[in-house]
């Protein structure tokens, strides 16, 4: 058999190099496969910390496990005067949307909420204290206090939010 020459040689070479039929999807490069594998591995490993340590801390705002726990809180805020008389206040009125109020009941968000509440209500200017009771449970477990009860949250360290 003779070797093709000229135009027919180029045509024969083109036929042998063509790996995929026209219209077929392109194959992904090795780097792309590695990037996808790394992404999947990270996504699988991120939730392991919570499962391994069985932490009693879930966030109520958006997170990967926001629907896997039932997070319930009872909160009461009140002003106490020098005679000991307690007058409850509605903390929800300090939110633009009342439905957003429960989102602050986490140890990392409570100090900022208490700071803003103290600046708005300003009980010290009227000779009063702002006291709070915030107790939360996960999956109907025992309620745990998040705030030191009976303490003026405006003058307490970390606005009376308890450490873990």
Shape: elongated
Mean pLDDT over the full residue set:
79
Strand order of the largest sheet: 2-1-3-4
Order of helices and strands: HHHEEHEE
Radius of gyration: 31 Å
Secondary structure class reads alpha+beta
Helix content: 25-40%
Alpha plus pi helix count: 4
Taking pLDDT < 50 over at least 5 consecutive residues as the criterion, the unreliable ranges are none
Strand percentage lies at 15-25%
Beta strands, count: 4
For the sheet with most strands, the description reads: 4 strands, antiparallel
| CA(first)-CA(last) distance | 84 Å
Q: Would you kindly provide a written description of the structure presented here, covering whatever features stand out?
A:
This protein is α+β, with helices and mostly antiparallel strands. The chain has a domain at 71-160. 27% of the residues lie in helices and 16% in strands. The protein is built from four helices and four strands. Strands 2-1-3-4 form a four-stranded antiparallel beta sheet, with no helix packed on it. The longest helix has 16 residues, at 30-45.
Key phrases:
four-stranded antiparallel β-sheet; 164 residues; alpha+beta
């Amino acid at each position: 058999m003779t070797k093709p020459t000229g135009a027919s040689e180029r045509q024969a070479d083109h036929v042998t190099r063509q790996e995929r039929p026209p219209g077929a999807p392109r194959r992904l490069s090795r780097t792309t496969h590695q990037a996808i594998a790394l992404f999947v591995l990270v996504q699988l490993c991120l939730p392991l910390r919570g499962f391994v340590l069985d932490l009693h801390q879930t966030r109520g705002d958006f997170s990967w496990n926001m629907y896997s726990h039932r997070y319930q809180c009872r909160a009461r805020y009140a002003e106490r005067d020098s005679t000991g008389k307690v007058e409850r206040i509605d903390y929800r009125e300090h939110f633009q949307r009342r439905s957003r109020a429960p989102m602050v009941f986490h140890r990392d968000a409570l100090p900022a909420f208490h700071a803003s509440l103290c600046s708005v209500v300003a009980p010290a200017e009227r000779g009063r204290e702002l006291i709070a009771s915030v107790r939360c449970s996960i999956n109907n477990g025992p309620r745990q206090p998040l705030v030191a009860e009976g303490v003026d949250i405006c003058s307490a360290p970390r606005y009376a939010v308890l450490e873990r």
